[in-house]
Write a structure and sequence with these properties.
Double Clp-N motif; elongated
Length: about 230
């Protein structure tokens, strides 16, 4: 059976995550590393000032200088001088997979934000360990606090208005709020569909006239219009 490939899930990343992953690939290739590892990806995500992960690090008081030193030290310890094109490590693939699940099922978005990847990692014992193995600074983060206060923590993030790189769907609740009528809700069903029953009750839909018999045949319990 065919599996979901890297290109498909990476296309769900927004510009921040996607460009950082591309730079990570180039860095790993240039250094002759066998794999594109989490540390490669993180070091480029942390170059920005207003990404979800950076804002989360600042919120929990992580020492960004120590964080970057630890990440660069991890990269420096990777095996070098491989001649083949590096592959994406299983850790990064798992992060993309969990990031997509959390983006759609928990946050109700169609883009994978760096914050979604982080939450997915913090909720996984194995992936959280991968972060902490790179730097002990990640011990300062609390997934419970992050998942309850993420709107406030990420409010100034430049990822708020981004979309997935494959161009599908709407990027965020903020972009949905810019559509006519404002924000429709926080779940995918609320945001990407219409509640016709609510519209009928509020008088936004035209009444159905002259089709009473058809309506009664299809819905025996429906009262006939007077």
């Amino acid at each position: 059976m065919a599996d979901i490939n890297l290109e498909a899930v990476a296309g769900k990343l927004n510009r921040i995550g996607y460009e950082a992953l591309f730079k990570a690939l180039r860095q790993a290739k240039g250094a002759g590393n066998r794999n594109v590892e989490l540390a490669h990806w993180l070091v480029h995500i942390l170059q920005g000032e207003r990404t979800d992960i950076v804002l989360t690090a600042d919120h929990f008081g992580l020492d960004r200088n120590k964080l970057l030193m630890d990440i660069n030290a991890a990269i420096g310890g990777f095996r070098k001088n491989e001649t083949e094109m590096p592959t994406v490590s299983n850790t990064v693939m798992d992060l993309l997979d969990r990031g997509w699940h959390y983006a759609t099922l928990f946050f109700g978005e169609t883009q994978i934000r760096t914050g979604h990847v982080l939450v997915g990692a913090l909720q996984s014992r194995e992936l959280y360990r991968a972060f902490k193995n790179i730097s002990s600074e990640f011990n300062k983060m609390s997934v419970d606090v992050l998942t309850s206060e993420y709107r406030k923590i990420w409010a100034a993030s430049e990822e708020e208005t981004l979309r997935p790189m494959d161009g599908s769907g709407l990027g965020t609740a903020a972009s949905a709020a810019q559509q006519p009528g404002g924000a429709k809700g926080t779940t995918p069903l609320d945001r990407f569909s219409q509640d016709l029953t609510a519209k009928a009750r509020s008088g936004e839909m035209d009444p159905i006239l002259g089709r009473d018999d058809e309506i009664i045949d299809r819905c025996p319990d429906a009262p006939a219009a007077e």
